[in-house]
Amino acid sequence: MKGLLIKDFLTIMRSVSLLLFFFTACIVMIEILNGSEYYLAIGITVSAYAYLSYFTMIADRNDRSLTYLFTLAIDKKDYIIEKFILSILMGIAGFVFSSLTYLVAYSLMGHNLIDIMSDIISILNHIVIRFAVVDALILLVAFIFNRRRSLHIIFFFGCIYLMFQVSVYDIMIAMDHRPDISLIGIISAMIVAIVVYTVMILLSIRLYKPKDL
Amino acid sequence: MIAIKALKKSYGDFKLDATLQVESGRISALIGKNGAGKTTLFKALLGLISIDDGQVIIFNKKLKDINKKDRQKIGVVLEDATFNMDLQVKDTVKVLSALYPAFDEAYFMKHAVKLDIPMDKKLRTLSTGTISGFKVITALSYHPRLLVLDEPFIGLDILARNYITDLLHDHMSGYPETSVIISSHITNDLETFADDIYLIDNGKIILHEDTDKILCDYAIIKTNDDDYAQIDKTYIIKEMVKDHIHYLLTDQKHFYSENYCDQVIENTHLDQVLSMYIKGDRS
To answer: ipTM of the assembly?
Structure first.
């Protein structure tokens, strides 16, 4: 599995390269400087980075490299679990990157560092749950409908989702319920995420039948 | 050792029905025209496609019992597939090092240099021949005990092909229990190192013979209409007529050399045997 992770990290770097990171930084900065809520900027970045795992599934389909991959010392389970782990790792990277960007930007604007960090931690549980449910679901759907054309269609709708996603935080604001920093809330969110991810992985292992090899 | 027993796979009108065996320490070549079923057979052997019936045995285990440790002993070259082409050559070294404990980086680097494979270039930018060389040294770099090579010589010049052939020989010398199954349209090269030949046509194995026997005992007799009527056809396997010349394939060259010394009897090469078997009629 380590080999697959290395492959996918290098694929992302070679295929998408720093352009994606600068693009993401621009989106985050524009969102923040335009006065948009920070949670949206961070949420978009987390999902966009996690979505890169899905991008590597499309890349595997190119040049018949998926056929070659399954001749190596890996099995179906390795391939599936690695994609989910990659999505978590990339999501964490997105969260760290966008949070640091928000931290730096608002610090330069004169905001209090403690307040900024509180803002970030307050949305952590919402981001984790949304991330676990939606991003893991996209991977599950990708494994079920794993023909090349289906993957591109899912990728297209995924991009639409990223552009017009409604933050759970927005819904909660509309319901007049503001989240507070809550350790219990974060731990609960983590547990929910672990359960959801485990279910998605088990379903993917059961339902994934590599086609077009 | 690998054994394929009555393997059946259907794709529409095409039906693969093959039985073959490659013993340890042997190199078996699989030849046939385009679309004969070579790649389908390799994919079935590697578990890349499901089969309708039959059995595949690798390392004395059924295919479904092959685990990751076993896969670490299998080296594969596929005709039209390799790593993601956006990766650089040096990236694949990192991936292979992580996947294969036995990966020999020094071996890979040494032969990459000899084959002029640039480490800093994306696979997509390499020529067809360079990619072929890369695929072969990748497959050999973790010293496997089974090599499945589907068209490993595509795009290679004669020098590179000789180098790759020497690599295979060296590998067999260093690991004499290795089994190799190889397919190639460049049959001249196969004649120099394959121990036996399987000829496949329309999904069926139509010939299995030792290479030495084909090169020593097989012959093509060229004769005209008059002499054709006089020739004993007991040992004629296939025959073909072209421009009033009869071409007769036999596996008893010495019989015809002794009894029909006035006839034109030519030694055969694999490509001629392939051509006669596919285009010729049974005598």
So the answer is: 0.88
